């Protein structure tokens, strides 16, 4: 006897979003290759770093009109940059990955470039992240441990001093003064100035293979699993919560975390950007105007624009373009859900549906159909999928669908 299907209508408030992107590529003056990090300096200028070809400049600055590139002929000691930071004195620090020799860090005071390498006391040449603590010390997370620079001397920390791993991927200072490190293979490490404490998957992390650690304005600490596709972990000081694509993430591969001026936390990885407001998730990808779904850098500027460093250049989500248009609310419904064969999409005005994309839980695009209200899912395997409904005005909404 044919199994009876229960018609489950999932009513979704279709909040209108009008995503507007401004994109910059090599044609505009952006450095070629993957953009690994984006920052805004105290002058309001945007800096980005990256590399693909070590013969091309790895640093670019945007003053709002013109992109200016900096390569080894201009002063930096490397073109293969993966991290950048401006300290409280206005100096710029650029961390490189060793391609030719012992690269380390280049520091720019606005006029003069200075290099620091292992010969100067830096613990490692592969500098993944840079921060400044509240005492004015500069910290470097490297592939060989951590270095703290007081302006004169490097103090280094490795597994011999208590780190669980030397393969550090990022570093932050928490609001209580503790220094946190993420590692590529042994979870996270907290340093209170005296003792190192290891936090791993056994304690509640989604993975021990971490790409980022980040603290939001609420004090929660986030850990991204950029090397194991296991999603995000949020630590509130007492308990761990794991988020994946099932919850609304665009991808379980997250490589960057940032927070905007409104307290929303942004995550970038392999399948676009995800925004979390504390309750709901929003996904922004190429279908919305993003240059590339591959994201390595995110920065919110003073005006509320969100800058994304992508595999194809720099994308800017213009401030206010995600504001809610309450007067244009519409209701969408999908049925049956769970579905076996045909997924039906309903709205008060079906003509406003421009495209429907169906993604796997890993973020892979499975089905894409235009101007339709019926999606054939009969050939798909059982499991969880996400149907992204895109309107003619590029407003979109994503609905979780269960395939039986």
Write the layout of secondary structure elements.
Layout: E1 10-14, E2 21-24, E3 34-40, E4 46-51, E5 59-62, E6 67-70, E7 81-86, E8 92-96, E9 105-108, E10 113-116, E11 127-132, E12 138-142, E13 145-149, E14 154-157, E15 168-173, E16 179-183, E17 188-191, E18 196-199, E19 212-215, E20 221-225, E21 231-235, E22 240-243, E23 254-259, E24 265-269, E25 273-276, E26 281-284, E27 295-300, E28 306-310, E29 314-317, E30 330-335, E31 342-346, E32 353-360, E33 365-370, E34 374-376, E35 383-391, E36 396-403
Antiparallel strand pairs: 1-30, 2-29, 3-4, 4-5, 5-6, 7-8, 8-9, 9-10, 11-12, 12-13, 13-14, 15-16, 16-17, 17-18, 19-20, 20-21, 21-22, 23-24, 24-25, 25-26, 27-28, 28-29, 30-31, 31-34, 32-33, 32-35, 35-36
Annotation keywords:
Methylamine Dehydrogenase, Chain H, four-stranded antiparallel sheet, 2 domains, Immunoglobulin-like, 46% strand, mainly beta
* CATH topology group of the largest domain: Methylamine Dehydrogenase, Chain H
Strand order of the largest sheet: 1-30-31-34
**DSSP summary, beta strand count:** 36
Q: Tell me the distance between the termini.
A: 17 Å
Shape: globular
What would you note in describing this structure?
The protein has no helices and 36 strands. The two termini are 17 Å apart. Strand 11 (127-132) and strand 12 form a beta hairpin. The protein folds into 2 domains: 10-14 and 331-403, Immunoglobulin-like (Sandwich); 21-317, 7 Propeller (Methylamine Dehydrogenase, Chain H). Strands 1-30-31-34 form a 4-stranded antiparallel beta sheet, with no helix packed on it. Strands 2-29-28-27 form a 4-stranded antiparallel beta sheet, with no helix packed on it. The protein has strands at residues 10-14, 21-24, 34-40, 46-51, 59-62, 67-70, 81-86, 92-96, 105-108, 113-116, 127-132, 138-142, 145-149, 154-157, 168-173, 179-183, 188-191, 196-199, 212-215, 221-225, 231-235, 240-243, 254-259, 265-269, 273-276, 281-284, 295-300, 306-310, 314-317, 330-335, 342-346, 353-360, 365-370, 374-376, 383-391, 396-403. It is mainly β and 404 residues long.
């Amino acid at each position: 006897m044919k199994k009876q299907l229960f018609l489950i209508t999932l009513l979704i408030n279709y909040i209108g979003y009008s995503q507007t992107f401004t994109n910059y590529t090599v044609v505009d003056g952006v450095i070629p290759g993957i953009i690994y990090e984006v920052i805004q300096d105290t002058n309001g200028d945007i800096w980005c770093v990256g590399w693909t070809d070590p013969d091309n400049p790895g640093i670019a600055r945007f003053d709002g009109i013109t992109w200016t590139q900096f390569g080894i002929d201009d002063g930096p000691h490397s073109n293969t940059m993966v991290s950048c930071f401006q300290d409280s004195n206005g100096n710029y620090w650029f961390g490189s990955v060793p391609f030719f020799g012992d690269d380390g860090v280049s520091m720019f005071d606005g006029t003069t470039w200075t290099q620091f390498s292992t010969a100067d006391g830096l613990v490692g040449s592969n500098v993944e992240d840079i921060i400044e603590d509240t005492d004015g010390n500069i910290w470097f997370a490297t592939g060989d441990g951590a270095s703290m620079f007081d302006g004169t001397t490097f103090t280094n920390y490795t597994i011999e001093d208590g780190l669980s791993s030397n393969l550090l991927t990022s570093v932050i200072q928490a609001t209580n003064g503790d220094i946190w490190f993420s590692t590529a293979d042994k979870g996270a490490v907290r340093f209170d100035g005296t003792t190192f404490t290891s936090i791993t998957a056994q304690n509640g992390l989604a993975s021990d293979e971490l790409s980022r650690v980040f603290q939001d304005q609420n004090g929660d600490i986030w850990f991204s699993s950029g090397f194991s596709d296991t999603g995000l972990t949020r630590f509130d000081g007492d308990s761990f919560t794991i988020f994946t694509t099932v919850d609304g993430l665009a991808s379980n591969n997250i490589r960057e975390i940032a927070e905007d001026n409104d307290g929303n936390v942004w995550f970038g990885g392999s399948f676009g950007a995800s925004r979390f407001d504390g309750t709901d998730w929003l996904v922004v990808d190429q279908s919305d105007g993003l240059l590339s779904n591959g994201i390595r850098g995110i920065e919110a500027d003073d005006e509320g624009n969100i800058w994304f460093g992508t595999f194809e250049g720099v994308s800017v989500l213009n401030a206010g373009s995600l504001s809610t248009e309450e007067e244009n609310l519409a209701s969408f419904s999908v049925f049956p859900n769970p579905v076996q064969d045909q997924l039906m999409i309903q709205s008060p005005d079906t003509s406003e549906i421009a495209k429907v994309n169906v993604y796997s839980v890993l973020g892979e695009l499975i089905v894409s159909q235009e101007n339709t209200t019926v999606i054939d899912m009969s050939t798909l395997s059982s499991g969880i999928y996400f149907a992204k409904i895109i309107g003619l005005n590029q407003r979109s909404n994503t609905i979780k669908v269960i395939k039986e």
